[in-house]
Amino acid sequence: xxxxxxxxxxxxxxxxxxxxxxxxxxxxxxxxxxxxxxxxxxxxxxxxxxxxxxxxxxxxxxxxxxxxxxxxxxxxxxxxxxxxxxxxxxxxxxxxxxxxxxxxxxxxxxxxxxxxxxxxxxxxxxxxxxxxxxxxxxxxxxxxxxxxxxxxxxxxxxxxxxxxxxxxxxxxxxxxxxxxxxxxxxxxxxxxxxxxxxxxxxxxxxxxxxxxx
Length: 213
Known about the structure:
Blueprint (H helix, E strand, L loop, with lengths): L1 H16 L4 H83 L4 H11 L4 H13 L4 H12 L2 H16 L3 H16 L16 H4 L4
Helix pairs in contact: 1-2, 2-3, 2-7, 3-4, 4-5, 5-6, 6-7
């Protein structure tokens, strides 16, 4: 009898978990099932079927409130991420303009990222800080560059990953590739022009060379 009650409870609880948001289920489903099964065993061992019934009386209200809470947080999370992606994209053409300028001025790729971290507004600053942390932790810079696209959820950045890949395969002038892509992005994104105020003390003629002038 207890085995049947245990099996039934586990199956029902697994169905209840399906009500949670996908992100939550991916992170916690297995752990929650294990925890619930342990609670069932303890309840059955202590008070038999009555103990299991009492456990369900506690679990169901908690489950209902938790599902509502997680869905509300999920909606807020998605809105926050969407807003962050929009801000990142709005800043992107200026980011690439500074990236290109740093490369033309003799800085390597990692140094160009450091310059962006120093001068960029949020959320671009934090995104590149995370990128640098991965590189300084031993990650391949191209891999870290690609992972940034998943983190900021930017289709434009994913296009840049393909440009970087082509650069690694074919060689050539990376700054020129960036400028060409940037002109295309500009048609859709415009330019916040935050990079125009950055002074690298390099004698850079903004009016003559800024790629989005």
